[in-house]
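## Example record

The block below lists the input lines for one assembly entry, exactly as stored, with component labels intact.
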Amino acid sequence: MTVKEILETMDYGPAPESAADALAWLDERDRRFGHFIDGTFTKPGAGFDSRNPATGATLATLTQATQADIDAAVAAARKAQAGWARLGGKGRARYLYALARLLQKHARLFAVLETLDNGKPIRESRDIDVPLAQRHFYYHAGMAQLMDQTLPGREALGVCGQIIPWNFPLLMLSWKIAPALAMGNTVVLKPAEYTSLTALLFADLCRQAGLPKGVVNIVTGDGDVGRMIVGADVDKIAFTGSTEVGRAIRETTAGSGKSLTLELGGKSPYIVFEDADLDSAVEGLVDAIWFNGGQVCCAGSRLLVQEGVAEDFYRRLRRRMDGLRVGDPLDKCIDVGAIVDPVQRDSIARMVEANTDGETYRSAATLPAEGCYYPPTLITGLSPASTLMQDEIFGPVLVGTTFRTPSEAVELANNTRYGLAASVWSENINVALDIAPKLVAGVVWVNGTNMFDAAAGFGGVRESGFGREGGWEGLAAYTRPSGKAKPLAKVDAFAGDKGPEDGIDRTAKLYIGGKQARPDGGYSRNIYGRNGSLVGQVPIANRKDIRNAVEAAQASKGWPAATAHLRAQVLYYLGENLSARAGEFAQRLDQLTGARAGAKEVDAAVDRLFTYAAWADKLDGDVRSVPLRGVALAMREPVGVIGALCPDEAPLLGLVSVMAPAIAMGNRVVLAASEPFPLAATDFYQVLDTSDMPAGVVNILTGNHAELAPTLASHMDVDAVWSFSSTDLSAAIERGAAGNLKRTWVNNGHARDWMGEDGEGQIFLDAATEVKTVWVPYGA
Amino acid sequence: MKMNSTTKTATHQLPQTLEPRNPGTELDLDWVARARANRSAIERRAASLPGRRSVKKDYQAAWLLKAISCIDLTTLSGDDTEGRVRRLCAKARQPVRADLLAALGVEGLTTGAVCVYHDMVPCAVDALQGSGIPVAAVSTGFPAGLSPFHLRVAEIEESVRAGASEIDIVISRRHVLTGNWQALYDEMRAFRAACGDAHVKAILATGELGTLQNVARASLICMMAGADFIKTSTGKESVNATLPVTLVMVRAIREFFDTTGYRVGYKPAGGISKAKDALTYLALMKDELGNRWVQPDLFRFGASSLLGDIERQLEHHVTGAYSAAWRHATS
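Predicted structure tokens for the full assembly:
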């Protein structure tokens, strides 16, 4: 077209970013790559092609890692780890700073290579992915620098196996590697097979930064390689990817003692209230669902619009969709690039084609004739029952429905297996700030979407996984308490055949929903003292009792909503009432355990109740320093309903140590009492009854831990399971927990000193809470 | 909305020959109350726009020529003289060196208008005789708009009599700041009536309105009261045209068009001095409103130094060498 003609059409025309430097970088390496193990690139071996999805052209041939490669990488990481940790936080900070600087210096090379490999628009890789990756290394250079001061008593986990997805290859690498290295871990990382190139370029940077050999190892390959890493001798697995694979990893690693964090799928709601700035909310959707072609785990993919403005909003949205420019990702004037691979494009197309509900609108944007593209799509008029409202599409497809009231918006938003992110649009601060905490999600954006920063935690709840990346909470995923724990000692019940020594028969029952309840099965077990005389009977709870207890706990909705001051009062009152009956409990404990430590244990239990009463209104959230005019709130929220297998060896103190932090933070609990010595727990419900504890907040079961654990672990309405049983049930619990990907905290065969420092503190409070990040940009 | 991408541009015709004028509507306070502008979200959109849109090579040259055709070449200084205005008008007639235009294969390019104070109108009209370039006069006690109301109306009438075919009025900011929407509407109605056949551009002085929400409301009210154009600034406020303000105003224009079917023009003024900025503004207009609004009858830049930067970019495009200001005729 001539200039004169363009004056008439006012077309944008091509604005290509040159790929020359990135291609030259590939050419210099003959377009063949091995793995990066122990500071060197291995000889390229048999493998697979990495393609440019925009053209289908082969960019390079990569090597499929073998078991021997994984063994070598893990061995190198293992060898390097002690020295890396010994270097100290300040020593490590310098390397992380160097990596941040190097990422900055090679920013455009990374951006172009990422776009070639992944198909995302150059604008995104250049303006979002690469700057955020740099930011993550800068931030964690700071965390390394401050570790000795800010994290006393914590140390590196060891060797971390890290498996990352193809949607943000370099950024996810940064989210994994930066905190791991900062805390003194070494890593074996596997990029996704579609998008390994920027990881290999990063490996090159590690050499330029002079990083000690073996600290970072990068191996390439498909899911089989991922499985090898999961099975390898590593201390932690960090995985970002699909919920299906995350669940499989949970099952595989169950009972292995490997630390695990999972950042999985989502179907994040995008809620538009009638008083929202509708045009801005439409524009927000461009960043929510058409960012990276919707191939974003936290994409705002589920649109919920208030009924009165729905048609108006859809009209604006459709027009905006028509203005999206879809095409060559290397063009600087493109909004939506290529889908990462034909396999993914076909999967998107299949899901959309299978849908017969609602009304489907496709952007009028022209798609390139060649290459792997899918048009921006909107499907309105769906119901929560529609498959597309439930299942993650992972493409540029937005689905939606309407709501009438704020509470209905919350109900629809939370009607999902996932819980990664959510957006709320309203100009009314009352509405927005009321809704944000009610949304079941790890991240909530008010009047915005897809805001990220290294200082703000990111991660999900429910089947979106567990663990946080970024912020202080992200460091918990890469550290553990220092020191070595003693092995667990099984505590057995005493046998006996004598009758009771004295007294009137007392009937201990289960304690469910604030009432004493007979066991569903109708069976009881005799409890004997050390001398073989009968102390009493306890009910044998079965799966139906667990069901009832969980229902009662879930029904107790007032407790998490109650003020922290009220929770503190109840806990203090519990302590007071336990103290009033100290003698009786001490005697009971001595009778059960045959020891003389009862009085001391009761005293410690009273103290512990007071401690968590004190904590109830002091575990504050905080405001994070993110680059935004606004606030990013890191709010501490209760996990929900926690099932706990209480310590066997400390029948009262153990139960209190588990219960108190959980309820102080607003959780409700289902407690399986000490298996050998359960009668202290059944006495304890009388204390609960006299202490203004609302019904259902604490539920107490007695019975066999090994029988109760799988039911508790697999219960879909339980949010976390803890086990301190002297029977090591870690494997069974973690396996069962894979079902709804609930949080687990198990002892992995290690003992805990309940009388000592390990029996209380921050670690309990952290387990009892989730950090929810709420982004609130503002501006008059 | 119909996005007509093939509309013929006739830079030498007065706007009303292309588009029916906006007659205005009743004052609809419900609509005004519904107006929302979320500053953070708007700023995010504005901040990402320059990174989302890029025009290169011949396309860039064409876009820059388009920008020139949309410039209201302006002088609004206390020391303006006839000589100065005549020089400006000569530049408006021939904004780009002839050899450059020839190299680009374009002829007959002029700026969109010449914009002056009332006293300079006769001279400008004379100097532009036969060029088809309209003369715009700033009016109504520009820039503060605080002279007696009847004098402000009379000033419009004088300027129209003197030959101005476009009148840039300033609104009473105090009506916006105190929420006196009826007064704002009535004032604008009176100004529009005084303009007669001359087109009226309503200057909101957005830098003095306090919030983007107020910008949105004032935009709607001025359009309801019959503005042909809404314009950001006088150029005399401490903050003049910005991308966030532009987004708010063009979204109001879009909504007004969706509701009434009348196209109202947009004029950012003040602070736009770089060719790159002009491209971003054009892209914003194109993306938010469509190609129809990237024409001089619906889009103007109020600018004095922008042209100079564009000329240098055009010479660079033609020769491949970076240019210098002295190689281009001054105004």
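Chain B has one domain: 32-328. Chain B has a mean pLDDT of 94.
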